Model the fold of this input.
Amino acid sequence: MKREDFGLKITDEIHFIKCPFSRPGYFTGVCAILGETITLIDSGLLRSPEEAIFPYLKGLGREPEEISTVILTHGHGDHCDGIYTIKKRVKSLKVAVHRLDEPLLRDPTLYGKDIHARFPDFFPPNPKPDHKPLDADILLEDGDRIPAGEHELRVIHAPGHTAGSIVLLEEELSLCVCGDSLQGRGDSRPLLYYSSDEYAEFIKRLKEERIEIMALGHPMPPFRKGVLYGDEVKEHIVESLKAVQELREKVLETLRSSREPLPFKEIALRLPECRPQSIGCVLESLEASGEVEKIEKPERSLWRIKGS
Done:
């Protein structure tokens, strides 16, 4: 395959690499920032370095051994598992992740265990590992600034998809690297494992930033591209917020339309176009705000509009 089949140039020093994932035409996005060494933002799947990242870098006249740092947008296997492969060549590789997602790196079953603990009557116990266990060298916080070649990246905490999801903003270029932190609208999105309220608040904060270029973790709807420009960026942000607001209303309407309290499984069955994990996050947010209540039964939990 030609180098352009694997990705595209954003600037002379910043490249977007498409790592094939799950089905034809779908991918995990990895950004490479070139300097004296190479900084990667995310690393794809276990096979992604050999399959896409290394060939792309070689096409630029660079070697995989020049990779010095991987900054993770979050701790899911389709973004972090490639680190294991890179470390076979680069023993000194540094890994940076937000401190709230560091536990996901150490325990690849953790997010499956967490969602089961919160909704045990729907999500199975004993999940399979999402990736190989990893150690982080650098724990990030909101507002941190990370040098990458001639560029500087500002960390923006973006909870929602995970507790420690981040986006990285290169302010001089108005470039935002999002990972899975901004889910778009359509194709059953958003996919949230942590919090729908914090996801919505993050999007509102992001609307205040000056962003002209946006690199996504996957070809998210509505544009289904890896890199967005100009008005596409603004529309993607607006659609992402609209999607989570619509999901909230769908969950509320499902509960309002039922004469009896509903188990989680029934709510999910009535909303087949929505991800069960995201429905769960919305229910938790609605319970916290006092709009719905959970009734604990020996065999399962039931949900209803509060006071109904």
